[in-house]
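Table 4 source record.
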Amino acid sequence: MGGRSVTCRRYRKRRAGDYRRAVPPVVAAVCRSFGEPLELESLELRGAGPGEVRVRVAACAVCHSDLSYLEGVWDGALPAVYGHEAAGAVEEVGPGVVGVAPGDHVVVTLVRSCGRCSFCASGRPALCERRDSLQLSRSSPLRSADGGPVEQGLRTAAFAEQVLVHESQVVPIPLDVPLESAALIGCGVLTGVGAVLHTAQVEPGATVGVIGTGGVGLNAVQGAAIAGAREIVAVDVVAAKLDVARGFGATNVVDPSGTDVAEAVAELTGGRGLDAVIVTAGSAAAVEQALTLVATGGSVVLVGMPGGATASIDPEDIAERGLRVLGSKVGSARPHLDVPALVALYRSGRLKLDELVSGRFPLARIEEALALARGGTAVRSVVVL
C-alpha cells in the first residue's frame, strides 16, 4: 500500500509539471488601466491541464460586457485580457477531455461549469456553484513577459491568438460553419435567443416586446420569431437599429424619444399588453418601462445589467397582476445542447448570424472595433485573427 501511494503522488506531480509548461508566446490585447487603449503584448500561456482545452482563436466579437469591464464599470483585477464571444480550432486537449480533439472547430463560451453541482444537474450550468473551485478559476493561465500574472477576463480572455479554457466552455461545430459567424453564438446569440426560448418560454402566437436592439436584443427579436410569436415589438432610440430589427423579425418598432411606448403597445394589443418583455438595454428606466408594457400574467425578463443602478418597482402591482420578473444569465443557456441547435437553425436559414457582423478588424486594430461598438450603431464588431 505504501509503494502504491508513492506511485500516485509521483504521477500527479509529473502531470502537473506537464500542464504548467508554456506554449509559444501568444499575442493578446491587454488592459492595464481602465478606460485606456489596450496594449498588444506577447504573453505566456500554459499548456492544457486535466479537463482543459487550448483553442487557437479565429474570431472574437465585441460584447457590451467587454466594454463595461474595459471602462471599469464592473471593476476587476488588472492587467487583464477580455473578450469572450469566440470561435476557433482546438490546438490541444488535456487529460480526461472527451468530445473534442485537436483540429476540431469549436464555439467558445464564458459558461464554465463543473457538470456535477445541483445547478448543473438541473440544466442550469450558467449558475454553477462550483466553477470557482476549478483550476482555471483559481489561477489564470496567462503571464506577462516578466512573469507577472494577467487576469483571464470573463473566464475566457479571447482578445488573443489562443485561449485556454475548461472543457465545459467549448462546443464542437461542423467545419463548414464560418468561424466569424459562429463566434457570435458564444454569448450574444445564446443570450438573446435563450432569454426568449428558455427564460420567458415564449409560445407560438404570443406577443413579445424587446427593449434595446443591440446585438443581444436583435437575437431576442429573432428568438421571438423562431418561437412563433404573433407580434414582436422592438423598442430603441436609435432609428438605424430599429430598421435592422425589422430584418430580424420585428413586426413593429417604436422609438421612445418620439412616441409613448405604453400607448403604442396598448393600441397594438387592444389594451392588453405584451405576453413577454425582454429587457436587453442596461438601463433601470428600461426595467421600469417594461413593467408598464407587460400583460397580466406575463413575464418581464431582465438581460441587460445597468452596472449598479437600481429600478423602482411596485410589488403590489406585480403580485396583483401575477407577473413574473425573471433574471436571465447568458439566456439560461445549456451550451452543449443549445449551440448545436442554434447551428442547425443557422444552416437551415432560420437563424441569422452573418447579418449580425457589422465590421471585421485584425487584432492590431482592436481599438477601432471597440470604438464602433461604443458608438451604439454597430451590431457586432468582430476581431478576426
